[in-house]
Write a structure and sequence with these properties.
Number of helices of chain A: 17
Number of strands of chain B: 0
CATH architecture of one domain in chain B: Orthogonal Bundle
Strand content of chain A: 15-25%
Oligomer: heterodimer
Strand content of chain B: under 5%
Helix content of chain A: 25-40%
Structural class of chain B: mainly alpha
Largest sheet of chain B: none
CATH topology of one domain in chain B: MetI-like fold
Radius of gyration of chain B: 24 Å
Number of helices of chain B: 13
Structural class of chain A: alpha+beta
Radius of gyration of chain A: 26 Å
Shape of chain B: flat
Shape of chain A: globular
Largest interface: A-B, 72 and 67 residues
Distance between the termini of chain A: 56 Å
CATH class of one domain in chain B: Mainly Alpha
Helix content of chain B: over 70%
Distance between the termini of chain B: 7 Å
Number of strands of chain A: 19
Order of helices and strands of chain B: HHHHHHHHHHHHH
């Protein structure tokens, strides 16, 4: 019996050992002097078709494989990229771009003006069904074509020479050169795309023109980028290779970072407080705002003073300092910092805090509002948010502040995010969590959301003066005048208070100290062109 | 026998049709849209109209149902909505082999170690080794695999740095997920083997074998274990089904690019073609597995007749 037992034990142990040893040998060996950055993309990119991609899973990597006419520099300003230079007509509506003579695709084809015309028409083609198409509406004839009401030839993007591209805008807007750094405006090798409409689906067929090239792509598992030697500015590119994992569990990502399987990681919620206190977390601003939306079509928020009372009773600083604890900036205006007006003043600094936390005033505003609306007691109020521990913590804090400062009991309700989005768009909520992330780097992107009937306008607010100011600003060529209109519009929005802002978003991450030079734009996508890693 | 197989086959088709129809109804009953984005960005109305037309979602539901039935029959569910460059078949083709590999290793480890543990416990009945084996088995059953997975990562990957934390690139990447997944089934098998071994070891023919002076190894392996294995075969079918479908959490924790994530992610993002494709695919796999278990069982134990 003993002999038998020892045999089984021997077999099981040797099996275990085989596993363990193969483990040791399969560990990645030290790199051979190559500079390899190991990043996590979080998930499989939705698509690498620049016309359709519209989420960070696709655009963070794609931003480093392709390049548009302009590229954002380290200080978030658009700089010549595929376009070596450009001229602007007097009315600022016509741009003539001169594409670099040495601009090449990874297959050796030259990058031509036709490639841009092809790509932009793809973006706007209603059959492409691109969620990003609206970004192109600034081009004359674009909106009509996208809505199926005009021809492709009506889109005023034309190649007047192999390297000359002329774009006519429907309205002069100073942010145009910034906007076209967005991946939606990346060119496509037209010759390749016409032969193979699915050229972007695999590494073998992918043709790029950016700082890196797509060397391998195992769908839903990993990607490898290597330095693109045909890139016009390849001397600025220091990395040899980027290995992308696709890990969508924040704890696993963090543990892979801890053990050197990754060079960067997000901050897992459970460890957030500890990691922020340790000072290891880096923070970059993100163009976007967390706010609470008050539906003016639902009692009691039809009354402006009640809306204001709720806003004034919430201490945003306390939320950022003691609930979030992630170095976010509390918001007392809607447009996040980072947009300079013609006098080089920041939009946020110019308009400043448009209201402040004031529980005493909140109380008297509530009293006044209730008198105006004829309430003895307030109707039942529910604050709804999409299911998420952080949203819950913030909404519970707001609930407590409203109870303490106004004596109002607010109920909380949460919903799965997809249901939540559909219901919010339909204007079903009384009081709800709202969030906005900028699509392009201009205050107008923030402000257009609250025009009458806009999908983001879940508060169902409508104000003629606001609609007029924002529409004028989106058509105005004079930048000083345009900024003045936007300043007024934001003041009006916060004065009417269909929403109250809580804080501005940021991007928190952990980074291997050996890595530097990654640029996180507040509006835009991860930039690896200047990244370095010392071995 | 042929008649039985044909009958079971028709039943399988009916079952799949019922599952497919239920999935379709439930999927369209939950509110939300595949074109909502989780990052708060809103897609404009024109784009949503264009997208709905692209995926036939602008058609009335009965028409969508017919399109869907056709896609099941032709095994062509079209492209995923969330990953439009990949068809549902692509996703299954990439994910299933990985899940299958993980599941197979898990089964092998669970069966071998479960049998070993059960036999040891039975032979050392009421001794310290028995109690130890049973303690391990009870722990294995009661600790959820995701808790075990997290502990394994913390200890063997983060603290000791013996093994990688996650992803799927070779044998060393399989060890922790296989242990995490196999422990539960191993414990179930060990307990079954222990009790049926105890029963068999008390039978007269074992005593005869001992009296004849046969070596203990021969008695255990040739005479006792063979008969004790029967109940295990019964559970292995169900266990295999559980392992193949129940890997979602483990795949997520270890960042394994298997099929599990499509189940949950596709529902979160209302990716209709993927929801339908994965559900029909998995129910087919399960039904076929159970069918084979029935056949094998009848073949192993002639007392069970297949009618």
């Amino acid at each position: 019996m003993k002999k038998w037992f020892s045999r089984v034990l021997f077999v099981s142990l040797s099996l275990l050992l085989v596993f363990a040893f193969s483990g040791c040998t399969a560990r990645p060996s030290a790199s051979s002097g190559k500079s390899v950055l190991k990043l996590n993309n979080g998930s499989e990119p939705t698509t690498f078709n620049p016309a359709v991609a519209f989420d960070s899973y696709s655009l963070n990597p794609l931003n480093n494989l392709l390049e548009g006419l302009t590229r954002l520099d380290k200080t978030n300003n658009p700089k010549p990229a595929m376009a070596q230079s450009w001229t602007v007509s007097k009315d600022q509506k016509t741009y003539t771009f001169h594409i670099r003579q040495d601009a090449k695709w990874t297959n050796g084809d030259p990058v031509t003006a036709k490639d841009f015309v092809y790509a932009w028409r793809q973006l706007l083609n209603p059959k492409t069904a691109s969620p990003a198409a609206f970004l192109g509406y600034i081009v004359q004839g674009a909106e009509a074509y996208n809505a199926g009401k005009g021809p492709a030839s009506g889109v005023m993007v034309t190649a007047t020479g192999s390297k000359t591209l002329v774009v006519k805008l429907r309205a002069a807007q100073s942010y145009f050169t910034n906007l076209i750094s967005n991946p939606a405006f990346f060119p496509v090798d037209a010759k390749v795309a016409q032969k193979n409409p699915n050229w972007f689906a695999n590494a073998k067929t992918f043709v790029g023109n950016g700082p890196f090239k797509l060397t391998s792509w195992k769908h839903n598992a990993s990607m490898v980028f290597t330095k693109n030697n045909t890139y016009w500015d390849s001397k600025s590119v220091k990395l040899d290779q980027i290995d992308w994992a696709m890990v969508n569990n924040p704890d696993t990502e963090y543990q892979m970072y801890k053990t050197g399987q990754l060079d960067s990681s997000g901050v897992p919620a459970d460890l957030s407080t500890k990691l922020f206190q340790s000072g290891k977390v880096k923070v970059a601003p993100q163009g976007g705002t967390f706010f609470i939306s008050m539906n003016v079509k639902q009692a009691p928020f039809q009354n402006i003073n009640i809306r204001k009372a709720f806003a004034y009773a919430v201490d945003n600083k306390q939320i950022t300092d003691y609930v979030l604890k992630q170095k976010n900036v509390p918001a007392y205006g809607f447009v996040s910092p980072g947009f300079k007006d013609p006098s080089s003043q920041d939009f946020r600094a110019h308009n400043g805090d448009l209201y402040k936390y004031d529980p005493t005033q909140a109380k008297s505003l509530l009293k006044k509002g209730m008198q105006e609306a004829g309430y003895k007691t307030l109707p039942k109020i529910t604050l709804t948010y999409s299911t998420d521990p952080q949203n819950q913590a913030i909404c519970e804090a707001i609930q407590a502040m409203l109870k303490k400062n106004l004596g109002v009991s607010v109920g909380l309700a949460n919903m799965e995010w997809n249901v939540y989005q559909s219901q919010q768009k339909a204007g079903k909520f009384q009081l709800s969590k709202g969030s906005f992330l900028a699509d392009f780097a201009d205050p107008i992107d923030y402000l257009l959301n609250f025009q009458t009937g806009n999908q983001m306008n879940s508060m169902q607010w409508s104000n003629k003066q606001y609609d007029q100011l924002t529409t004028e600003a989106s058509m105005e060529a004079n930048n000083t005048k345009r900024y003045n209109e936007m300043y007024q519009a934001e003041k009006l929005l916060i004065n009417q208070m269909p929403l109250f802002p809580v804080y501005f978003y940021n991007q928190a991450y952990l980074l291997n100290p050996k890595v530097s030079g990654i640029v996180y734009h507040p509006v835009g996508y991860m930039e690896l062109k200047w990244a370095t890693k010392v071995n | 026998m042929a008649k039985y197989i044909l009958k079971r086959f028709l039943e399988m088709l009916l079952t799949i049709w019922v599952i497919a129809t239920l999935t379709f109804v439930l999927m369209h009953a939950i509110p939300g849209s595949p074109f909502n984005t989780s990052n708060g960005k809103s897609i404009n109305a024109v784009a949503i109209k264009n997208l709905e037309a692209h995926y036939h979602l602008d058609q009335p539901l009965p028409v969508q149902y017919l399109i869907y039935l056709k896609s099941i029959i032709t095994f062509n569910y079209g492209p995923s909505i969330r990953q439009p460059t990949q068809t549902v078949n692509d996703l299954i083709g990439q994910g299933f082999p990985v899940s299958f590999e993980l599941g197979m290793w898990t089964l092998i480890v669970a069966i071998i170690s479960g049998i070993a543990l059960g036999v040891i416990a039975a032979l050392k009945h009421n001794g310290i080794i028995d109690y130890l084996a049973i303690t391990i088995a009870v722990l294995g059953i009661s600790i959820p695999n995701f808790v075990l997975a997290t502990l394994l990562i913390q200890e063997f990957a983060v603290n000791l740095e013996w093994l990688p934390v996650g992803t799927w690139q070779g044998v060393s990447y399989m060890v922790l997920p296989v242990i995490a997944l196999a422990t539960g089934p191993m414990a179930i098998i060990a307990r079954l083997i222990r009790s049926s071994m105890l029963e068999v070891l008390n039978q007269d023919y074992i005593r005869v074998a001992e009296a004849k002076g046969l070596s203990p190894v021969l008695i255990v392996f040739k005479h006792a274990l063979r008969n004790a294995l029967l109940p295990v075969v019964t559970v292995v079918g169900t266990l295999a089904a559980g392992i193949l479908t129940g890997t979602f959490v483990i795949e997520k924790i270890f960042a394994i690019p298997g099929m599990g994530k499509y189940f949950v992610d596709s529902i979160n993002s209302r990716d209709y073609p993927v929801i339908m494709g994965t559900t029909v695919f998995y129910s087919t796999v399960l039904i076929i597995l159970l069918f084979f278990v029935d056949i094998i069982y009848g073949w192993l134990d002639p007392r069970i007749k297949l009618h």
